[in-house]
Amino acid sequence: MKKYFGIFYLSLILSLMASGCAGSEPGASSQTGSPAQAESQGSQPAEILPCRYVVPGTEPEDSPAVDAAINEKLKADGVNLNFSRIYVPWDVWEQKVNIMLSTGEEFELLHIMEDFVPSSSYVAKGALAPLNDALDQYGAKLKELIPEDIWECTSIGGDIYSIPVYYRDFSKHSYIELPKHLFDKYGLSINPANMDELIESYETIIKGEKDPELRYWPKVNTTTDYKLLRELESSPFVALENMFFVDQQGTVKAWLETPEFIKDCEIHRTMYEKGIIHPDILTYPHEKVSQLNEQGKSFDTDLFALEQIRRVQPGFEMASYLPAPEKPRFFGEWVIMNANAASSTSPHPESGVIFFNWLYSAQENYDLLNYGLRDIHWIDSGNRRFEAILDDAGLSKYSFGDWEMGHKDLVRISVSAPKELEPVVFEMNPDAVISVAVGFKFNSEPVSSEYAACLAEIQSSIYPLKYGVVSLDEGYDRAVAAMKAAGYDKVVAEYKAQFDAWYALKSKS
Amino acid sequence: MRKILKRGFLGDIARNPLSYLLILPAMLYTFAFGYMTLPYIIIAFQRYDYRKGLFGSEFIGVKNFEFFFRSPKFLQISANTLYLNFLFIIASGIVIPLLAAIALNEVKGKLFAKAAQSAFLFPTFISWVIASYIVYALFATDLGVVNQLMKALGLNPLNFYSNAAPWPYLLVLLRIWKNTGMQTVVYLAAITGIDPELSEAAIIDGAGRLQVVRRIIMPLLFPTVSILTLLSIGKIFYGDFGMIYSIVKDNGVLLPTTDVIDTYVFRALRKTGDPSQAMAVGLYQSFMGFALVFLSNWIVRRRDPSAALF
Questions:
Q1: How far is A35 from chain B (nearest CA, A)?
Q2: Strand, coil or helix: what is A87?
Q3: Strand segments (E) across chain B
Q4: Does B245 touch chain A (CB under 8 A)?
Q5: Cα–Cα distance measured from residue B281 to residue B295, given in angstroms and rounded to the nearest whole number
Q6: Which of A90, A151, A298, B298 shows its CA 20 to 30 Å from the CA of B216?
Q7: Whole-angstrom distance, CA of residue A230 vs CA of residue A221
Q8: d(CA A73, CA A83)
């Protein structure tokens, strides 16, 4: 019995080791492209290059089938690439990517979430390869479809390190998306005269509805709710990383010592005291907030959740309110939030450029990656809409986020998506103001100790003030003193020096 | 040849192949993650560049340690880490599981003992993420069970998430709830290993149950308790990130009493993701843990060599 157990155990270990090794073997291909089709894709590498794309999330069931179809199409189009995806689970994304990069694991494309880990952090550690030459040689379509100023926004020190995902009008975030049906129910205006009136309206609804989940749910992170500050004379401006204030004249100040920050805290504190912001906002589970947004329990509705909300509340109506409407829409700190970069661990950084150039060169190519196999995973509903084909459990066997690879001219929306979504997805507001600070990437290396200490201190001292949990009287002096002890002044001085130098150069050109 | 094999290490493998086979995965794991990663300690002293790699990156001395040691929060988070871990070791590592193991050993009804043991063990298998939802359901300001009860009793509800003071004790209670089961199993196994004739002889000589526990079981359990405690001390500079971050999240109001080295480093480096600075703090934690284990072991060995780790 012991002997059989031993044999079984040994074979189990060996098979696990073998399967582990097999899984790490990158795919190889002997495909060759047709020279005629290759011409339509511009210059092509002589040999078939790998294009391993590292993306966050869980691999959909049919992802390998879609990758195979993409490779077939690449071959048919004469593009010398072998495409595959490496999925990294969300909860270990930063750690796993760091390990892959530090151990020199080869892959060609890395997805960048600027609000998570900015591309500048990767560049500072030598993790990304510049793409300028590859774009000149292989990226004609990319250059055609993505405007020059967007490339500038994503470049670092004059070099382009990533292909921006140019698909959503972030200036729409200037609006507060009000639950119109509730405003109508209580006879309130959906165009309040000012922020005070808006907060009073929220209070009226809160008192009337008595729904403990209906709140204003601010995102607890480093971003600033600029829409709440549009009435300020100095608006538009950006408050980057909760540390640096930059106005449209290029003036840099310590954000925490500006009247704008004080006003931001006061607005949130008022809402907190009136019960409009949840008392446990700093601890409330993020997943639960997302669910509540999808149930229409937010005073600032997520436009992209509208379709889902109407499944739960068919009578849900939304009204877009633009505070200080005389001012133009503002992109805030994000013109582009996602991008795809070339890893410096790969000997072929050009692969990513070739792939995206091919992807954006035909709607068919784009559809394949974004929505999967036509008539198997989705149906074309016309007018740039699609219908996902679901299984018996109501799930799709394939999906890939348009936020990861989308483009405004190629993206589709769901057949049941509300009409209100179309202008946000398909168009970019030409009049929206872009912050002068967009495109500037702070190199924190000279003040790395102080910068890290400030980042840690912000959550400890600033978040309670920023979200109204602690009043200014109670916490402001202590919070600023804690930030200064962490080296805030030195960090701001370094930021200002770098920004001024960059801005002077930018103004000249 | 046969004799030589039987005497040496290879001989031992030949005699106990299945035992070595059982330990093989753990050895491979330790080799891969414990030894193969050791060269990477060097990056704590480098400005690590992904392109230049381990041996090409620039050496910058102890600069990577500065962000942590020069932080104004260094003393506070170090003290929090030691204090919380000390409470965890005492409460959920020794006192409560030891009492639970002795109590379960004394229970005559087998069915009850097994049911109680299972109930103790169940929370071990609940992740801290799931536990954090349970904690929130208990202590939420508006709809939390505790506040609802307080309201029902005519008391003023408390805003637990705006008051840092009770959280070290709440965390200890949670740790007891989650860890007692597994520690109890270890102590129960140690108690089972005690020769029952010793207790029977003591009872025949007129000893009561409490005297048996105090004079026989406790002294014989001491080496097990000591070794487990020494192992825990090795990790005393590591905060339980999974637990604290899941429960406290980004709530700065609670951080004065709950911020530990791991949560602080996570907040400081989440954005920059600097592997060199992370390694520097990891090295400090390991070194301090090693020093403390060495010191504690030396003290234990002077008192009772059989209770020492080495």
A1: 35
A2: strand
A3: 46-47, 58-59
A4: no
A5: 21
A6: B298
A7: 20
A8: 11
**How many angstroms away from the CA of A485 is the closest CA of chain B?**
6
Q: Tell me the C-alpha distance between A405 and A302, whole Å.
A: 21
Inspect the interface and report whether the beta carbons of A464 and B252 lie closer than 8 Å. yes
- Token couple for B269: 């480096």
The pair of three-digit structure tokens given for residue B94, joined into one six-digit string: 């020794």
CATH number attached to the domain at B75-260 = 1.10.3720.10
B140–A280 C-beta distance less than 8 A: yes
**Which of A5, A284, A460 is the closest to B252 by Cβ?**
A460
In DSSP terms, which residues pair with B59 in a beta bridge? Answer: B46
Token pair belonging to A475: 């916490």
List, in order of start, the domains of chain A with CATH numbers: 31-168+332-441 (3.40.190.10), 171-245+259-321 (3.40.190.10), 445-508 (no CATH)
| Mutation site, B274, B276, B281, interface A, largest A CB count within 10 A | B274
Phi, then psi, of A178 in degrees rounded to 5: -85, 150
Amino acid letter at B177?
Answer: W
Q: For the complex shown, is ipTM > 0.95?
A: no
Residue A501 vs residues A123, A157, A315, A485: alpha-carbon distances, Å: 19, 11, 53, 27
Dihedral class, residue A164 (left if φ above 0, else alpha if ψ from -120 to 50, else beta) = beta
Mapped onto helix, strand or coil, the DSSP state of residue A320 is strand
Hey, are the CB atoms on B133 and A285 less than 8 Å from each other?
A: yes
pTM for the full model? 0.82
Domain boundaries, chain B: 1-31, 75-260
Cβ distance A375 to A385 under 8 Å? Answer: no
* A2/B22 Cα distance (integer angstroms): 12
Phi-psi region of A417 (alpha: psi -120 to 50; beta: other; left: phi over 0): beta
Task: Note whether A280 contacts B275, CB cutoff 8 Å.
Answer: no
In B, which residues are within 8 Å of A466 by CB distance? none
Chain A residue closest to B249 (CA)?
A283
The span from the CA of B268 to the CA of B73, in Å, is 11
Percentage of residues in chain A having pLDDT higher than 90 = 62
**pLDDT tens per residue, range A113-150:** 987 888 888 888 889 999 999 999 999 999 999 998 88
Rounded Cα–Cα distance for residues B302 and A52 (Å): 58
Hey, is the C-beta of B162 within 8 angstroms of any chain A C-beta?
Answer: yes
pLDDT tens per residue across span B23-47: 999 999 999 999 998 999 999 999 8
Which B residues in the span 70-99 are in contact with A, Cβ-Cβ below 8 Å? Answer: 70-73
What is the tens place of the pLDDT at every residue in B80-96?
Answer: 999 999 999 999 999 99
Interacting residues of A227 by C-beta distance below 8 A, sequence separation 6+: A173, A174, A175, A176, A300, A323
Across the A:B interface, residue pairs with CB atoms under 8 Å apart total: 146
The answer to whether A252 and A495 have CB atoms below 8 angstroms apart is: yes
